[in-house]
Structure prediction request, 433 residues.
Amino acid sequence: MKIRVIHTSPPFAELREAAAAASTDDAELRDAVARIVREVAEQGDQAVEEFTRLYDDMPVDRIADLRVGPDELAAAAASLAPALLASLHAAAANIRDFHERQREHGFMDLHPDGTLLGQRVAPLRRVGIYVPGGRAAYPSSVLMNAIPASVAGVDEIVMVTPTPAGDVSPVVLAAAHVAGVTEVWRIGGAQAVAALAYGTRSIASVDKIVGPGNKWVAEAKRQVFGRVDIDMVAGPSEILVIADDLADPVHVAADMIGQAEHDPDAIAWLVTTCPALVTAVPREIERLLERNPRRDVARAALEANGAIVVVPDLDAAAAAADLRAPEHLEILTAEPLLLAGRIRNAGAIFLGGWSPEPVGDYFAGPNHVLPTGGSARFASPLGVYDFVKRTSLIGYSRARLEAHAADVIRLAEAEGLFGHAEAVRVRLGGAGE
Prediction:
């Protein structure tokens, strides 16, 4: 296994280029997606039907045929093996319990003079969730995107998922049933994103679009932002493992493969203070890949985007992790919680050898929709807070307006906004009456 090895220390001159997110600006893709978005916005159902026939090889005559009814969702759940359905329900319960703790309730501050200042928190009315489809099934994406919306109180949760020349996986439909999805369409790609953003005769527009997808979906989300809100423009999946000399190289290797098998663009880094892992981990990766059906994908990702970064101490390891700002950060050290306290930038942090990243992907409860491409420097995991909006409440009494009038007028006039100042003056018997 050929994984690049970097020996470095702060200020990490050797790491900065490797840590920089790759540019996602593709002029040809941008123009192609813009055409799809424009045609769906202008032609509605007809354009969605045409693009679905073209890109998904589906013999669709009318868009209504692409809707999955509530009875089909219930039937899909009933068709699953009981143990799998039980696992879906257990995961959903964990996710719901965690996200219930994120609820915001707003506040009202009533002053003695009768003034009211506050903030109202209200759910979005209708949101769309994109679930990748085709060759793979992602019920976990359904749960992680839909349940926070449900907890937030969103009225309508619309799921779109592509089904190239086939049907939606029963386990994905079952997950939609378990998560409380209210509407499902068998469409995908940029045309599905455009339909959710602009609406068609058959598909009502939404307020926000969330969920992962390929580069066409990511670009479409980028282009419709502003018409609707989006969660993020997601890049390739990432993991960074910090390991000291107590870490098991088999665990490190398995965890790096777990991310690398997503796709050839996935990113897997090991940051270590232990020189012995430089040889032990690639050896274990090679051994574990032999029994992985997706070995070719994982190998391509590790050789192109993998790295073993050797640092002098754990303080340097924490600084390297902060620089990379990974989507997933595993800490396999003697005192993982202590080290986690030194790290600001990560989408999710997995503490210790008994917390492999897949427990976060599927079951623990925290959301697996995480910032990628270094955006953990400023972005957060998907949560209930992404499905609500906040409205300020301002109710002044006459006494408070009189007390604050001079300050407000002075500030308005400093900005050259006479009308702003006048709106206060006329209420207090000043010029203008």
